[in-house]
Amino acid sequence: MTAFLTIIGLSLKVAFFALLWALPLGFVLGYVLATKCFWGRRLLSVVVMMPLVMPPVVTGLVLLYLFGPKGMIGGLLAPLGISFAFNAAGAALAAGLVALPLIVRPIRLSFEHVSRDLDEALAVAGLTPWQRFKMLYAPSALPGVVAGGVLGFAKAMGEFGATITFVANIPGETQTISLAIHAALQAFDQGDLVVWLCVASLAISGLAIWGSEFLLSWLEKRLTGRRAVRHV
């Protein structure tokens, strides 16, 4: 039971910290890709979506080459005592990167549904870009943020390939649910642990999806109420 609780706790911790850095970045990327026109926009979109279609092992190798002890970025961070390879921080980095496309996509779609005519009308009325963002873009993006956050959290919870390649499978340090199931399947006496981990994974995922549906419904009613008040 101790091992089970340790794995669940570590998985939730890794998924939380993965979301902590990936969700704000996904929000910014979704806004930029949906509302700005600039040279390299399509290239940026391709780069953002690459972790979704690349083999996760390749993503892990890229992270290892960049953030490993002798990597391009990891080598610069090592003298500062900052390390991502083979620890929980690296697991959160890998999980967040793989989840990033699933975070960006719904947020970007939410921003793309904002009426450009209404935005131009507000600009003509004298509202600053920040005021228009708060009044128009931010409320419209909330459903996308919720959907992206849930998808990103679920993906981070279940991430396997990039994590095991970048930070290995270290019990108590980087061994999340997927890695623990993989390790337990190699043994012949840990069938019960595999079953309990699968049940826990299904329960956490189902709870997250149910919570997102409830929150989306609440947000829809709230936004609908605000629009009705403005029209009165």
Key words describing this protein structure:
single chain, 232 residues, mainly alpha, transmembrane helix, transport
State the gist of this model.
The chain is mainly α and 232 residues long. The protein contains ten helices and no strands.
Question: How does this model look, in words?
Answer:
- This protein has 232 residues and is an all-alpha fold.
- The chain contains ten helices and no strands.
- The longest helix is centred in the last third of the chain and has 41 residues, at 191-231.
- The chain starts with a helix and ends with a helix.
Helix/sheet category = mainly alpha
Main beta sheet, described? none
Compressed to H and E, one letter per element, the order equals HHHHHHHHHH
Query: Low-confidence parts, pLDDT < 50 over ≥5 residues?
Result: none
Radius of gyration (CA) equals 21 Å
Domain ABC transmembrane type-1: 8-220
InterPro entries: MetI-like, MetI-like_sf
Subcellular location: Cell membrane
Protein name: ABC transporter permease subunit
Helices and strands, with pairings:
Blueprint: H1 2-35, H2 41-53, H3 56-67, H4 74-77, H5 88-112, H6 116-124, H7 129-158, H8 161-167, H9 177-186, H10 191-231
